[in-house]
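Homework help board

Subject: predicted structure for assignment chain

Our instructor gave us this sequence and asked us to write out the predicted structure in token form, then describe one feature. I got the tokens but I'm not sure how to describe them. Can anyone check?
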Amino acid sequence: MGLTKRERRIRIKSRIKKTVTGTPDQPRLAVFRSNNEIYAQVIDDVNGTTLVAASSRDKGIAEAKGSKVEIAALVGKSVAEKAVAAGIGKIAFDRGGCLYHGRVKSLADGAREGGLKF
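My token output:
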């Protein structure tokens, strides 16, 4: 019997987590995608702290009209602007076991537009 969707995603997530870690010089941009919302955090794994966060529930973004993909791009731009303001320019991208497609790709493109390099 094959893996369920959840088991497959957890397996992929653990495989990514082995190679992608956040350091103070190059923190990790972690993406969580639920059915309705999308969340992004810039994390320093060495100290165990979240440096910057943005989500589709933030005030300016929640009021925006558009598809989920367009809103994900706004979240990416928002987290990038906050990260650049905090002095972060280079990050490691953690897609959290999701495919690099659709909303996750849109968020990554928005973050690149906002000034992050990965």
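Reply (TA_rk): Your tokens look well-formed. For the description, you could write something like this. The beta strands are 28-33, 38-44, 49-55, 92-94. That's the kind of observation they're looking for.
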